[in-house]
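Figure-free illustration: sequence to structure, shown twice.
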Amino acid sequence: MKRLVLLILILLPLLSQAQSIHIWEGTGSGSKKVTLTPFIPEGDGPFPAIIVCPGGSYFWLDKENEGIKVAEWLRSEGIAAFVLYYRTGGVAGFSFATKAAQHKNRHPAMISDIQRAITIVRGNADKFGIDPDKLGVMGFSAGGHLVASSALYCDTDFTGMASGISLKPNFAAPIYPVVTMEDGYVHKRSRRGLLGEKNMDNKVMRDSLSLERHVTPSAPPFFVLACKDDPIVDYHNSVVLDSALTASGVPHEFTLYEAGGHGFGAVPEKQGPETSQWQEKFIKWFRNLK
């Protein structure tokens, strides 16, 4: 009997995690490798929802720390989470790509994937038991750039599907995000992953995907967080985003910790004294959204 109870306790969280959805299946577009995995809370909805985008320099994905662990935490807070494994350049693309043979998964593949995910979640709100008017996005590092892009460029449909469903998230939470594509504070690996080798030096492309240059007053609320001692992505990426949001009058909260590094996600073992507070801080901000 004890073994049965233990087995139920182990399996119970998995019962509310549906199988991954291949978001481009049957469309003749996108990639069959792109998946969206729901983590739905128990009980009656409709629940608020967040699409989660792990980081990885646009070349790979930190699926555990910045994906599954984040989704499990959000679900425990009564928030439906959907982990998106979007297209990236891949390890081979990072290791062997040249200007003559660059990796194929580059902009706009990634933003097309998150827009398709928004369409699926919002378009199937009743099925998932979520509130389509409380659908946000959260991303880490390069995933932070992606979710912020989805919030700032939502008036352009990169999917080519013309679904008629709003592509605008109700809020965006880029955590220790890549923001700029311009020299100075740029995370060069993410720039190469996003733009590809041929476009890395293209001034128009750099400008178009430097998020701090494309904030408008119509942007949704933002929650931005970074650490000054981040050894991977210069924290000034978040500073310039904060400045742009402030200049445009976009409601947002910006937290800059002195220490915490990069890549801690929702894993306590990777968090420090300051960064261990970020999840509670986000939930408080989220609960106060109007």
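We now fold a second protein in the same way, so the two outputs can be compared directly.
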Amino acid sequence: MSAPAAEFWDSLPLGAGVALLHRDGNGLAAFNKPAGVLSHPNSRADEPRALLTCRYDEEAQCFVWSDGGAERRLWLLNRLDGATSGVILTAGDGELARAVREQFARKKVRKVYTALVFGKPAERLQLWRDLLAVQRKGGQVRSNATAGNIPSVTQFQFLRHGQGAFSTSLVRLEPHTGRSHQLRVQCAKRHLPIVGDQTYGDFALNRAFAKTTGEKRLFLHSLETGFSYEFGGKTHAFKAAAPLPGEFRRKY
């Protein structure tokens, strides 16, 4: 087993605004995905707006492209909603991908998100525990926290409250479980909807915010990802962080 050469990483057909954050000697790599870029294309028409602008093999969960007549592959290890920005992981080797996916399956991967929400929380630190219901229909995923049976746990931390035209708060979210739309649903349940959330958010506030500020994105960002994994008979530590976008630092 050998990691891809530097030329491999130079050949990546990266999507618009996608940037390499960190890669280790085994070929595990983290990228910073901008909001609006898809984790992977769902169809050929989606390829120009995906993490890599090439074909995606859904069964193998990897991107496939040609470089000088040679076929290249990059395995996708996790996904972010298209509207969410931040750290996303890949592997340049299939065996490595399996080793890292095992850490995700064992819930050994630590992920930290930052969000801008409407409102101000009553407490600075909370452990959120909810039972979510997740429905998949017509290719769409919808979750709710009112009548479910899927345990969902998130460590919440209030960072600061804005003093602008809107009552907004910057918060830190560390999910201990990985349910679909978990963070967005848990924030909404506590009357702290994420700014720009078009599915679970406050639609009237979203419209007013966009009109006043010009910002229309979902204010959810994957800030840090870290874990250890076994590969090649050794234990390796990996950590990557994506800088907080400038729009999160403004006081609205």
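Summary for the second example: The chain has a mean pLDDT of 94.
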